[in-house]
Amino acid sequence: MDWDVAQKKLVITPISKELISWMISVFVFLNMLNTASLCLLLGKLFGFVQVSLLVTLGTLGWLLSSTFGFLLEVLVCKFDKNGTLKFPSTLPPSPDWKGIARNKLIDLIIAQGFILYICVVLIYRLDPYYQLESILPDPVSLPVKFLLHLFRVTMWIPISQVARISVFIVSTTIIATHLALGCISALDKAASSRETWKNRASIDTHLLNYASCQLVFGIGYDFVTLAIATGQFTCPWFSVVFNFISLKMYPFVDTSIYVYAPLIAGIVLVGMEIMVPLCTKIYQDCKEIHATWRRGMVGVKNDAKYLRKKLRSIQVIALYGGINSYNFYKCKKSTKSTYFGAVIDYTMTATLSIDTKSLHF
């Protein structure tokens, strides 16, 4: 998908020669980074290779980021039609401090890609390809060595791909959620008006508008549920890994690498602090509409029993996290505390249970 400036909407680019570079970067470079990181971690897990804790954590970070980027790319590719149909053609202004924070968050995501490639890959050689080359038995064949060097030099491609898809998901999710909340706010104002409950026709018009809002959410259901599940599954692991590095590994890591850890932890924290409340607010606001309906029914004289049954049959609009039309959880008020509670719990567990002084770096 791409943003058409002239038409001011998302448009689909069909599979063609124009997408060859995208397919190579996603299905070749991202998958190769996944494979190399997974080989190192499995070798460390089963004792085939000996690598330091710093390399292990770095490899885990590479695996999480590349897997996150690949899953999001596949998600967008599979459900691009649903996403463009749901996404509107107008953009809301956001002059408040949250809007500024979102813009700066996007800038940070782009900037950290350059820092990651220059410092971590080129200078300190903490990429999985260099680590694989260092543990391979001598002599390493020339074709294998050439491929490892090639993938190492071109690591800016998967890094840029992950940054690009992360910016796309963050931007579209925030804008679409704001517009959805605007529609729900309009419905809430209409439900609070006495004119809505004056007669049967006005009530039917109001419920039809609510059903239309439900339909819009249903169009992008597969896209949204999988995006929420992917983001809220991988982001806690990002937070825990980089929180641990920030808290426990300052004496053992060079400053230029150490600065990158709290930067990533901060980006993930700010991103989820903005996005999780937005997702939960949709459910909370729709519950308020249903509560307003119950209060408005008091003044209805005719067909009160029929109307009560009809309102009871209408579901509360909510966002879900799931996969393949199976919902794992609903984004409601307790989701935020559960998410950040899990991050704090696992961070404290890792910090208190792992003694960095006795480990080899």
Please describe what this structure looks like.
With 361 residues, the chain is mainly alpha-helical. It has one domain (2-358). Helices cover 73% and strands 4% of the residues. It has helices at 20-45, 53-78, 80-86, 97-123, 128-135, 142-153, 156-192, 200-219, 221-248, 255-258, 260-296, 304-313, 333-353; strands at 2-4, 9-11, 320-323, 326-330. The chain is elongated, with a radius of gyration of 24 Å. Mean pLDDT is 78; it is low at 89-95. Keywords: Membrane, Transmembrane, Transmembrane helix. The chain crosses the membrane at residues 20-43, 49-76, 105-124, 165-187, 207-229, 257-279.
Helix content: over 70%
Main sheet: strands, sense, barrel: 2 strands, antiparallel
Domain module tally: 1
Beta percentage is: under 5%
How many helical stretches? Answer: 13
DSSP strand tally: 4
The rough form would be described as elongated
Output mean pLDDT.
Answer: 78
Low-confidence stretches: 89-95
What structural category arises from helix and sheet content?
Answer: mainly alpha
> Largest beta sheet: what is the strand line-up?
1-2
The separation of the N and C termini measures 43 Å
Rg, rounded, reads 24 Å
Helix/strand order: EEHHHHHHHHHHHHEEH
List descriptors:
361 residues; mainly alpha; two-stranded antiparallel sheet; 4 strands
